[in-house]
Amino acid sequence: MLNALVTYAAEEGENYNPLLPATYDIVWSAVCFVVILIIFWRVALPRMKKLLDERSAAIEGNIAKADEAQRKAEAALEEYTAQLADARKEAGEIRDAAREDGKKIVAEAKETAASEAARLTSTAHAQIEAERQTALVSLRSEVGTLALDLAGGVIGETLSDDKKAQAVVDRFLAELEASEAEKATK
Q1: How far apart are CA 145 and CA 149, in angstroms?
Q2: What is the pTM of this model?
Q3: Which of 13, 54, 69, 172 is the most exposed place for a label (fewest CB within 10 A)?
Q4: 3-state helix, strand, coil in the chain (%, to 5)
Q5: Going residue by residue through the chain (186 aa), what tens digit of pLDDT does each one get?
Q6: Cα Rg for the chain, rounded, in angstroms?
């Protein structure tokens, strides 16, 4: 091929440059280039521009959606934080109310127990006093009977006057109680 080029250059003369194409090649190449350029300019370029615009709009839409989602997420986070703070505050209030209720219940239970203990104590004291009175009456009658029997045994006769015998027994028991009271005060 190089030989053919050199041979052709020698035939054309010395003005022939192998790097420059022939004029008809330049013209037809220019016509083809212009036709392709017009077709590209009229068909391909608008389609590419439309495709790029759609893509740009989609990207901007996604960015706007992402910004909106970011704002919503921040708003939801603020709302969540506020609800969490409210829940903590409410839990504290409930805990404090429960403590107060617990204190009230304990105080009521103590008061109820104290009143029940006082009632039981007063009932026990009343029962003890009643039993003491019963025992005292029983004791007086038995001591009186024993004393009269003993006195009758010492004297040798029976004491039949009940009023007089009762007075003697009562006086004896009163003296006995007085002597016990003196011992208790000393």
Answers
A1: 6
A2: 0.39
A3: 13
A4: 90, 0, 10
A5: 667 666 665 565 556 667 788 889 899 999 999 999 999 999 999 999 999 999 999 999 999 999 999 999 999 999 999 999 999 999 999 999 999 999 999 999 999 999 999 999 999 999 999 998 888 778 777 777 777 777 667 665 566 666 766 776 677 777 877 887 787 787
A6: 66
